[in-house]
């Protein structure tokens, strides 16, 4: 493997000194890029794209050809995991993900098992192929959904606005939900370790829906399972530490708890004040975030002003990875992303030097 030419992202996650604030964007490869839409058309369905090593490699690198991003993220989806468990993932055009066999009765839940990792071999093959194509330009991030977020889709059968099925189970039959979460946590641990083994240089756990839980329930049904995963991960590979990022959307009220999970960095959505978050977590973890993705609809001057405000809010010293507070919208103008990258790199050099 080629030596890493830009390790700014990995250094910031470990709160080591950097020359500027590194950035990457959640969902940086995707529909807002015309070249992604072209490859997607060639591949067929979104799942065909994920399952083809060469196409997955191509779309992972697309945003890096356009923008000076400091990390690449594996092109895949969090729902490949329940798909490997036999739930039958499919995408209805314009409707988002769905499962043919959601967990709707106790028999299905009792039959659930940690899948054989060979079911996800196409993901590990993509990781190896992307590392080769990157040739050390920037580090590669691997990822998984959190046990709770995966369970939301597995039980609801697709996206939800109410989470009523999973929450009913949580209150009526907590032991059943714990059973699912235990299997998910063991699966995600094996899955992320295999990604690390294949070449992922940092990993992020996406807890997109943990923030919908009540106080106390978040800790018991989402965070505790992420802690188990973090404790089971291989944190050293090829002589380098592999940092772990935990991102709970809507987790701003519980930052101290998340920072105690054993992770290296905490992802923040846009509702959190970055400076306040830094005071709350102290020097335990690095912080990643947290521009409102909708700010990218504004003109470049307004984007630059928001970047300046966020960087000043974080303050001096390392330990910040710039990102959005959630995934980039498919309607974002790519030129605005270019303006964002330029502003983050230019405006962050002075504070870090000072
Ligand atoms: C909840 C979730 C999913 N997937 C993911 C999450 C967690 C992050 C979050 O909270 O946004 C994670 C994900 N999904 C995708 C990535 C790729 C890597 C990246 O560039 O960040 C990552 C990291 C590609 C994708 N995953 C999906 C697309 C769009 C697929 C297409 O039509 O081409 C992409 C590029 C499909 C997907 N996959 C999922 C949904 C809800 C959808 C539909 C989204 C939509 O229609 O806007 C489940």
List cofactors, ions and other ligands: coproporphyrinogen III
- Helix count equals 15
| CATH T-level topology | TIM Barrel
What is the name of the CATH class? Alpha Beta
**Structural class of the secondary elements?**
alpha/beta
Q: What strand order characterises the main sheet? A: 1-4-5-8-9-10-11
Low-confidence stretches: none
What proportion of the residues is helical, as a percent range? 40-55%
Distance between the terminal alpha carbons, to the nearest Å?
Answer: 35 Å
Give the strand tally: 11
Features:
decarboxylase, two-stranded antiparallel sheet, alpha/beta, lyase, 354 residues, binds coproporphyrinogen III, 11 strands
Topology:
Elements: H1 8-13, H2 34-43, H3 46-51, H4 53-66, E1 72-73, H5 80-87, E2 89-92, E3 96-99, H6 106-111, H7 121-134, E4 140-145, H8 147-156, H9 164-172, H10 174-198, E5 202-207, H11 217-232, E6 236-237, E7 240-241, E8 244-248, H12 255-259, E9 265-267, H13 274-281, E10 286-291, H14 300-314, E11 320-324, H15 334-353
Parallel strand pairs: 1-4, 4-5, 5-8, 8-9, 9-10, 10-11
Antiparallel strand pairs: 2-3, 6-7
Coproporphyrinogen III is lined by residues 26-31, 40, 46, 73, 75, 77-79, 96-97, 143, 159, 206, 208, 327.
């Amino acid at each position: 493997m080629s030596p890493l030419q830009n390790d700014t992202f990995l250094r910031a996650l470990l709160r080591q000194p950097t020359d500027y604030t590194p950035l990457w964007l959640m969902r940086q490869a995707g529909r807002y890029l015309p070249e992604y839409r072209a490859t997607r058309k060639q591949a067929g369905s979104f799942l065909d794209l994920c399952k083809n090593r060469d196409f997955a490699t191509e779309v992972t690198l697309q945003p890096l050809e356009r923008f000076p991003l400091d990390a690449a993220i594996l092109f895949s989806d969090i729902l490949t995991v329940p798909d490997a468990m036999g739930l039958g993932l499919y995408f209805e055009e314009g409707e988002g993900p769905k499962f043919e066999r959601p967990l709707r009765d106790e028999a299905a839940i009792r039959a659930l098992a940690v899948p054989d990792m060979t079911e996800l071999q196409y993901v590990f093959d993509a990781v190896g192929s992307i590392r080769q194509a990157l040739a050390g330009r920037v580090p590669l991030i691997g990822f998984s959904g959190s046990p709770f977020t995966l369970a939301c889709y597995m039980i609801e059968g697709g996206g939800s606005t109410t989470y009523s099925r999973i929450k009913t189970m949580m209150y009526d039959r907590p032991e059943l939900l714990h059973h699912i979460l235990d299997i998910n946590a063991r699966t995600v641990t094996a899955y992320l370790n295999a990604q690390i083994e294949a070449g992922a240089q940092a990993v992020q756990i996406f807890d997109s829906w943990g923030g919908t839980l009540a106080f106390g329930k978040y800790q018991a049904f989402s965070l505790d399972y992420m802690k188990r995963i973090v404790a089971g991960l291989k944190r050293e590979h090829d002589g380098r530490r592999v940092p772990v990022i935990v991102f709970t959307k809507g987790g701003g009220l519980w930052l101290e708890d998340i920072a105690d999970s054993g992770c290296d960095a905490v992802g923040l959505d846009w509702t959190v004040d970055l400076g306040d978050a830094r005071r709350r977590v102290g020097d335990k973890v690095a912080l990643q975030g947290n521009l409102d993705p909708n700010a990218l609809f504004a003109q470049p001057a307004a984007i630059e002003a928001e970047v300046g405000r966020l960087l000043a809010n974080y303050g001096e010293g390392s330990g910040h990875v710039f990102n959005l507070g959630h995934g980039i919208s498919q309607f974002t103008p790519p030129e605005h992303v270019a303006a964002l990258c330029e502003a983050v790199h230019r405006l962050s050099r002075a504070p870090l030097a000072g």
